[in-house]
Hints:
Helices cover 25% and strands 31% of the residues of chain A. By secondary structure, chain A is of the alpha+beta class. In chain A, the strands form two sheets. In chain A, strands 6, 7, 8, 9, 10, 11, 12, 13 and 14 form a nine-stranded mixed β-sheet that branches. A five-stranded antiparallel β-sheet of chain A has the order 1-5-4-2-3.
Amino acid sequence: MTALLINGEPPTDPSFAIASSDRGLNYGDGLFETMLYRGGSVRYLDAHLRRLREACQRLGIVGLDETRLREDIHRVCGGASEGVVKIVITREGVGRGYRPTSDLCGTRIVSLHSLPPAARRTTVNLRWCEIRLGRNAVLAGIKHLNRLEQVLAQREWNPAAKDGETIDEGLLLDSEGELICATMSNVFIVRDGAIATPDLRFCGVRGVMRGEVLRIAGELGIATSETALWPRDVETATEVFITNVVRGVRGAAALGSHRWPVGPITQSIAAAVSKQ
Amino acid sequence: MTALLINGEPPTDPSFAIASSDRGLNYGDGLFETMLYRGGSVRYLDAHLRRLREACQRLGIVGLDETRLREDIHRVCGGASEGVVKIVITREGVGRGYRPTSDLCGTRIVSLHSLPPAARRTTVNLRWCEIRLGRNAVLAGIKHLNRLEQVLAQREWNPAAKDGETIDEGLLLDSEGELICATMSNVFIVRDGAIATPDLRFCGVRGVMRGEVLRIAGELGIATSETALWPRDVETATEVFITNVVRGVRGAAALGSHRWPVGPITQSIAAAVSKQ
């Protein structure tokens, strides 16, 4: 971490910065955003803040001061050339117990982190994760702090493994076997010249880059759909790609015994995203 | 909160005690226990620590120092006559990202809180919650820190409502409509003179008092089963009761238009629990 503000102030000591009673710690009662800072601006900032605003409404958290939040973001980025900006907000509250004593936004953490190391390949190798995502329409789409499923999914494989192919990302199914996403990316398939991505009505995060890709595909005249997808849809796709705001668009090269070339639709969307 | 230890030390200021990078805060990557302290001892302490140990194994968190944890519990209770002891432990880790950089137990919080106000009735009025619990067998049964479903469930009603009957607890179904638990209690039904409780194979917390009730029922010669239950099983039950370690065993008096007397099996189990 290279810069940190908590409720607008740099903490005296980041190791002693948050109340042990914080509802984010005790229940995951809050939200986060992860954003790319590059070239002097936070990319897709308005889309991130729109998702955060909608997520607050979903959880019933009120009073997030967006003006101050934008100031915090500006301040943590000051002087840096690039990085990942993370926002965490949690519901205010005192005492023990699931029932909130307040619905106000309590803690607002804004931090700047180094970019992850550049990838050695432009494509990714995928795996199927064993853990399944629980279905909960109330929590679907938003970036809340209950992320144990993603943590356990990433613990399933070692990305530094020397034996065999390096795995970059894991695809996740829900409890009914529907394809939802990857552990930190959304997933798209190409079939019959059109792109399709899971509709996320029951789980998964509605990624900002996912929205951008759907918008750009529309501009490029490529048909899109948000729909229920299953493992066989991935295995029979002509192209597969994953997206997030930090890594952009990356074509899948391998998944088990399946191999894909990086096809023309993935290439045209990746090119359009990188030009933005 | 009346006493607090973080990694065995009283914090200088509980409002500034935890790292903003704590994985418990960022991902809910940790566990908790809530225990009753009364009459000079923590009730069912061994059962709580057994569940915590098993839950650590499930999440792959290692190195919890149980000797120190027991010392912390002893210290926070020192001088108090009664209260609720809460333990929170989180996975160690630095930096951003779901993937753990360590599987060691990082933060160990032990606190003593006042008991909740004594109930004015010995029975409880129940409601059906609208939110459904997502199914995830990997997380089922353990008391992990991803508790947004319980938070949102409790936000569904106002226990202080003056219009009509006060509601004490809400029953929760999972995404398939199976009965699982109440927001902070386990649930039991009586039918044909035997007791049944949800088997929690897909979600819910395997409460310490739930285990005690199953054990006591066996001693009393009452048949028990852990099985799939549905709303109609509650509505056709001759008795319904809920359990947790703080409140013990409480018979349900009302749920929608259903009314139950506190029946003989609920009474005998509640009496046996309160004698312990």
